[in-house]
């Protein structure tokens, strides 16, 4: 989690290029104030994109429902990780040339 550092607008102006370096290279976040009140937040573009993606997901009721259902299935044990599945099937991970795989236990019973 990135903790925001609070800095006055005048201090931000005097140290603008240093702030850019801190945000770009150290992924720091700065809340810039004017007369003691927060006015803007300076953060890395990747962090902004992540927040935007999160907001998009949270605003899509169907997608959010699907995510919550998937998480419930995972917690109930109906979905297992690739590693656990391969172990159950007696397959060594090195023998596969694929990415992450998830397996529904309910399909195993049919």
List the helices and strands and how they pair.
Elements: E1 4-8, H1 9-14, H2 16-26, E2 29-34, E3 37-42, H3 45-59, H4 61-76, E4 79-80, H5 82-89, E5 103-104, H6 105-108
Report what the structure shows.
Belongs to the phD/YefM antitoxin family. InterPro entries: Antitoxin_Phd/YefM (IPR006442), phD/YefM_antitoxin (IPR051405), YefM-like_sf (IPR036165). This is Antitoxin. It comes from Candidatus Woesebacteria bacterium GW2011_GWA2_44_33. Antitoxin component of a type II toxin-antitoxin (TA) system. The chain is of the alpha+beta class. It folds into two domains: 4-45, 3-Layer(aba) Sandwich (YefM-like fold); 60-108, no CATH class. It has six helices and five strands; from the N terminus they run βααββααβαβα. The protein has helices at residues 9-14, 16-26, 45-59, 61-76, 82-89, 105-108; strands spanning 4-8, 29-34, 37-42, 79-80, 103-104. Strands 1-2-3 form a three-stranded mixed β-sheet. The chain is elongated and about 65 Å long.
């Amino acid at each position: 989690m990135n903790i925001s550092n609070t800095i006055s607008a005048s201090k931000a102006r005097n140290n603008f290029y240093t702030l850019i370096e801190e945000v770009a290279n150290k992924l720091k976040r700065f809340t810039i104030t004017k007369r003691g009140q927060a006015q803007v937040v300076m953060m890395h573009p990747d962090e902004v994109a992540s927040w935007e993606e999160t907001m998009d997901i949270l605003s899509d009721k169907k997608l959010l429902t699907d995510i919550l259902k998937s998480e419930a299935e995972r917690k109930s044990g109906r979905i297992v990780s690739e590693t656990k599945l391969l172990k159950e099937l007696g397959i060594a991970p090195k023998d596969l040339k694929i990415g992450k795989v998830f397996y529904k236990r309910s399909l195993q019973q049919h």
